[in-house]
Structure formats: structure tokens, C-alpha cells
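Entry 14. Two folds queued back to back today. First construct below, sequence then C-alpha cells.
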Amino acid sequence: MSELIILSIPFLGTSLGAAMVFFVRDKIAPKLEKLLLGFAAGVMIAASVWSLLIPAIDMTEAQGGIGWLPALVGFLLGIGFLLILDTVIPHLHLKSPEPEGLHSGQPHLSKTTMMLFAVTLHNIPEGMSVGVAYAGSLIRGAGITAAGALALALGIAIQNFPEGAIISLPLCGEGMSRRKAFVCGVLSGIVEPIGGFITILIAGLISPVLPYLLAFAAGAMMYVVIEELIPECQDGMHSNIGTIGASLGFALMMVLDVALG
């Protein structure tokens, strides 16, 4: 039961954010959007370091291994995994005029569908990170507590709230009904608990590779930050606002992890 609660927390954040489409008539102001995107980037960077990479290193060293090796291998594999998905799956970023991925120009793929694919890609590593952290809390000697996994889930949920709004409001602005835009925002986050649950199963079966899985999730999240969030929050004028948001997000996630973990 506790794993279902923890895995559902980030999804709840996305759903509540998507529900803002019923209360906000206009699009999010550009300055606020940059602040929120930067905030999400800061949370994900801090989570990658404090909640995933450091525990992976500590766990390996406690087992008598070379601390940095699984962290390095897993991190690069996570980057590569998201790179492959980003290259293969057709998707369209909200601010991009051109779709990406294989067969992205196929007429049967609507703009809305490709936008949804883009956000789903974004959410995959977040679900993985919460799942692997929770799995680590179940393994003795992993150096991860249940409170630490909860802190990670809360941090991801906090940054998912504005992301949910950033997803649903532009879709509504594209002419989609508010109800459909909300549903699309919710569906974009459903991959998080699913991905987290699958990761828990894998980590539970193969606990010796947990440090690799922790670093893998960190690499996947960092890919999203570098590929998508930072460029979008630094786009155009007022780029310092995105930087402020990233700093606040990093600080909040760091405090959550240290105070609760």
C-alpha cells in the first residue's frame, strides 16, 4: 500500500496542475512560465544528485566496490536511453514548430498526439526515479530510507504541478476543449506510477544492480533537463527568471532530501 501512495504522489501533482485549465482562462504569462520551467529543472537536478547519484555511490562503497563506476555507467546509460527514445518516438515540443522522431511527419499523427508523446517522454525518468528510490528503501544497506523516497516523490510532485498547467493550458489555447486538455495533461503523467512500479519490480529482483538503476534514473532526468527544460526556460528575454527558478527548485529539493532523507 505504501508503494502505491508514494508512486501516486507525482501523478497527483501532474493531475492537479492539469486541472488549472478549468480555473485559468489565459495562457501562463511568459515570465511565470520561464520561472516554473526553471524550477522544474532545479528540482530534477537536485533529485538526480542528492536522491540518486550520491546513494548509488554510497551503496557501492558500502559493498566494497568502486563508488564512481556504477554511477558513471548507469548515468551514461540513462542519457543514452532517453536519447534513443527521443530519436525514435515521434513527438512535438510545445514551443517547437517542427516535430522530432522517426515518422514524425506522418499525417495520421496529430499535433496534439505528438505534444502528448513529448510530455510522456519527459515523465518517464521521473517515475523511474521514484520507483528505484522506493525499491532502495526496501533493501537493507542501500542507504535510502522510506522518508528519502517520500521526499523525492514530494519534490517531483511539486514540480509536476506547474508542469501539468504548462501542458494543459497551451493545448486549450490550440483550440482543444478544457476537458480534453485536462485529460491529456492527466494521461501525460500516468506513465510515472507505471514506470515506477516496473522499476520497483526490476530492482527487487536484481538488487545488486540497484546502484546502476539509481544512476540510470539520474541520467535520464538530466537528459530531460539539458535537452528540454533549460533551453525553454532560457528562451528569449528575461532568461534570469529561469535561472532564479532553477536555483529555487534545486534548493527546495535539496532541503527536502536532507531534512526527510
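Second construct, same run, same settings:
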Amino acid sequence: MAADPRVPRVLILTGEPLDGPEGPASDLARGLVRAMPYAEYLWLRRWWGTSGTSAPGRAAGGRALPLVTRGRPLSRPLWAQVAAVGAAASHRVDLVHAVIPVGSGFATFSRLWPRLAARRPVLHTVPSVVDPAHLWGARPLGRTVAMSGATAQVLAAAGFGPVDVVGPVLRLGPWPPRPRARRTPPMVLALGDGGSEEALLAAGVAARAGARFQLVLVANGQGGGGHAGRPDEDALRAIAAREGLLDMEVLRRISDMPGLLAAADVLLYVPRALVGRADVPAPVLQALATGRPVILSDLPQFAALHDTVLRGPVADPHRTGHLLRELLDRPWWWEHLAERGRAVVEERFAPERAAEAYADLYRELLVGGGQGA
């Protein structure tokens, strides 16, 4: 990468261990480490137990640094542990690559980091801005990268600019294109994450307009740093009954996402806002890679998907419901969107594309030797 032929050492700094529960930041960081063969990485792992989540491991050039704190992601105890371990490790690397969302503790962390850490160049990838209010008093860690143009604008307005934009990463191997399941009725897979009620209302509109389908709702709260808690299942079933949705299943967690997408016909994800989620959540890319049309809220973070997906106005279940009905009733439209979705993921979100962009950024920072901000 740099003029020095030695492979650079890079600290991947995350607000949660990479072998811990899946989340937007840890998912992105794992993808980057696996996609970037140019560096020797140090990354954070749990001291205790196992979670079933695959960590980068030595196969990806990784060396683990243990975290002792058992706090939830983005909690103050974990922030303190990340700052301490990361600051100590920064003296042993050439570059720090932070993959940290802007959450409630970020402003304090951003002010403390320069005082604790070695003066190494920092590249900060922001998976999401949980709330723009959390940018108040925050300082750039270094060169900043956003995952969407919408988030880049928010960061630039807060004094983090100029902000680069590099899209998310999806390894295509686990998500091969799958033929449409020939099942009756078709299955609509709806993600909650702050949009459970909106999904039920849209599905109700589609059902009353004549669509016949089974609805599988993943009602797992907001996840990824949101604290709204898990939706009450009785309340969701009451809404479904009121909307005439008689064939509905509620899932609290997904144990086999590839199998669930293979069985589904459509992915429905219509939150009013993205809270603690990556700008393009992983299940959306996974569905597109599998060849499943996706219906989303028309949020600015999804603009990069262009015409790959269908987008209904935010909080407009009438329009969204009719999009769902039309999609289920038009096989030719389904086939077009399925083919287009897979092609766009291969073109824009394959690891090689992100690896090239980050390799250039690494090179600029390592050659320049500065913070890049």
C-alpha cells in the first residue's frame, strides 16, 4: 500500500467486540477485515464465552485484543474499555480504522481519544448516526467515511467534512441467487426494527385490496443500539386482527436468514426512521443478493439503491400496501426486480469494491502521516 513494502498494521476500533452479537458496526468491520488482505489487523474480541458469531480470525490476518467489560454495545462501561484498550493498541499500529456509529457516548469519546492515543492517522467509518443530537460537542476522529450521501451531509454540516462515501459490504458467497419459491400463498417477510406497526398497516391495505399472502413479521425491536425494546406480541397480533391479517407468524429472532429469504417472496421494511441501524441494513442487501424484491420506506439513506427497490412514502401504509399488492400480482415485475437487485449488489456492494476504496484511503493516510481531518 505505502512506499514501505512492510504490510501496515491497522487497528480496527469498534464499540463492540467483533465476536459478539451481530450489529451494524460489527457486521461492517468483519466484512472490511475479510475483504482487505493488504493489512495486518488488530481487532477487539470478547474475553469470555462464545456467541456463535464468526470473528475475523487469523485467516483474515487478525490478532485479537480482549475486552473484559460485559456492558451492552455503546454503553459507558464498554466505551471506557474500548478507549483504554484502543489507546494502548494505537501505539503498536500504523493506522487506526474506527468503525463506530455516532451514539450517545460518541461526543465524549471523540474528545478523549486524542489525549489517550498515539498520534496515528485515523480513518473513521460511520455506520449510522443514531441521532443528529449526538453530534453536539463531538469532534472528528480523523478522515471520515459515511455509508450514504444522506449521512455524509449530516456529518459535513456538523463540521466533519469533507466526508467520503463508501457503501456497505456484503460477501456474496453465503447469499447465492435463489429461484422464487413456488408456494401458495406467497410469503411476505417483514422486518420490524421500529417499523412493525407500519408493516402491519401496509400489509392490511394489500390484503383488503385482494392480495393473498402469509405475513412473517420479525419483531425484534430496533436492534443495533436502539433502546426502544421489543414490541409487545399481543399488541402486534391485535393490530393484525384489526387489519384482517389472519395468516401471520411472529418471529423474535432469525436463526436461518438464508433459508427464510429463500422461502420468502418479498422483503418489506418500512420504518419511519433508521435508529441505530446501518444506512443500508444488511438484511436488505441479503434479500437483493438472494433475488428477492424489497419494499422500503422512502428514507434518504436508501437513495443509493435507486430503482433497485420499491419505495413508499414514509408513514403511508396506503401507498406501500398497494405497491405490495401490485408486486405480488405481477410476476414479470417480480422477475425484473429480482434480477436487477442481484446485479446491483454485485456491482456496488461486493467486498472488492469497498476494498479498493479503503485501500486508497489507507494509502493517502499512511503516506500523509496525518489525521486527515
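Quick look at the second one. The radius of gyration is 21 Å. The chain has eleven helices and 13 strands.
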